[in-house]
């Protein structure tokens, strides 16, 4: 923990977690705090978002002072603290923000608007802030940005705006198939085989419609040929990401925003397609995006 | 229950259930019995397959007589009563059978071999018997046969043999996505909207790689446009079956074997593609397939 004074707080408040960073006036991280009190736990537990936030950041507050808090994510959803209406793409990401009502005078909370797309219908809450952060960190970036996760997003950026985007349930499908389907008997726990992963990528690129057949084949190869559990797990990951890339058809400038464990397979797959992706750490992108809104909301 | 004497017993013994039919000498169903003691419950509960079978069919046995029982399904798997080795496609379905060891002299149990395919690796246990039944009910059938289910199979038949086959985890993926993914909030329970189902079929046929994006779009359309839960459920079913049909590309003579609730969506989808499929009831197919083996095993 640094001894710099705390000027504002960045809050990444998603479905499952609340992650806060105490920030200095020049946007360096002074301290971190995290809890499992995401939107879902709070909304099913009575809905007191303010209490959950104050409990986590109590040590950063000073008597008689009001600290600005810039927040993004599902905290702005219908089941969140306040429902912040979506802005409609094409649009600049990460603005506007809405003020959440508080009982305490020690905090002033702004929540980012999510982004909607009308046709094809799609939504994001939180990723728009990371995209705003990417544009702050790499001014003028134009091209495709991928945000791997439970629901992976791909957005096309031009003129400083999200022009369009598309969500894939790739991470969730991997979790369901690896933990709850017949494949759970075949796949090893967390482990990695890059060759098998790339096999999956190329099989799905060649015939994306065969995904659920290629998936069963892992079980059959395990029964008949003793396919290794690590290879099976990695190939399933490649099949799912390969199907996604067959739909997105990435080209040109590509950035990936995320934690290393999530972005690495995508980076490997893109390299196999001859595309060198720029990596942006997800915390850095979130903070940079929240900082943009913090600056614009208090005129700083 | 008919009063005909019982000549033999047909046993469809899968992962989750044991279904037995008492059969007359001319292959009519005299009586039925069913239990939840499938391969999985028995193998995790000590493995006494004989006791589970005797308990269910006790009332059909006669002192001093030995009744032939013809069985198919996972009862012949490694975790089953005895492991019956697969035969390798191309092959005639439903033969050979292996005798299971019994303590009781009142039963004589033959278990059908499953079918394997080496490349692409694939396996079936139980469906080969239904395919043998189809060939018994419709002698000379050549073409494609679909067996919708948790793991849907498509087999190409010619010269009375399974030439090749392919398994899709379509039913299991539907169950996981509708019950355990974020879509559980969007989908209505059991309900049907044929227009929405066909929309899903056509979307997947047009761009099968977009499956997991089209699936998320159901959630987005529900949030943004109030998409109805019945339409969402039916479109998801169409998306999954449509992706499967995009891979199989059915043409020519097509038969579907299964219970009505499973075959109806496939039939609807095939009709939209201009293909009129012949329906075969799954119980009728299983019994006809087991009858073939019963006849060949006792020389009848």
Structure description:
2 copies of one chain form a homodimer. With 300 residues, the first copy, chain A, is of the alpha/beta class. The first copy, chain A, has a domain at 168-281: 2-Layer Sandwich (Nucleotidyltransferase, domain 5). In chain A, 38% of the residues lie in helices and 23% in strands. Chain A contains 9 helices and 14 strands. The first copy, chain A, has helices at residues 39-44, 49-57, 127-137, 170-180, 194-206, 211-225, 229-248, 260-272, 282-297; strands at 8-13, 18-23, 29-35, 67-72, 87-88, 97-100, 107-112, 115-117, 122-124, 143-147, 152-158, 161-168, 254-257, 278-280. In chain A, the strands form 3 sheets. A 6-stranded mixed β-sheet of chain A has the order 3-2-1-4-7-6, sandwiched between helices. Chain A has a 5-stranded mixed β-sheet with strand order 12-11-10-13-14, sandwiched between helices. A 3-stranded mixed β-sheet of chain A has the order 5-8-9, with no helix packed on it. In chain A, a hairpin with a 4-residue loop joins strand 1 and strand 2 (18-23). In chain A, helix 4 (170-180) runs antiparallel to helix 7. Chain A binds chain B through residues 86, 116-118, 120-123, 151, 166-170, 172-173, 176-177, 180-182, 204, 207-213, 215-217, 219-221, 223-225, 240, 243-244, 246-247, and chain B through 86, 116-118, 120-123, 151, 166-170, 172-173, 176-177, 180-182, 204, 207-213, 215-217, 219-221, 223-225, 240, 243-244, 246-247.
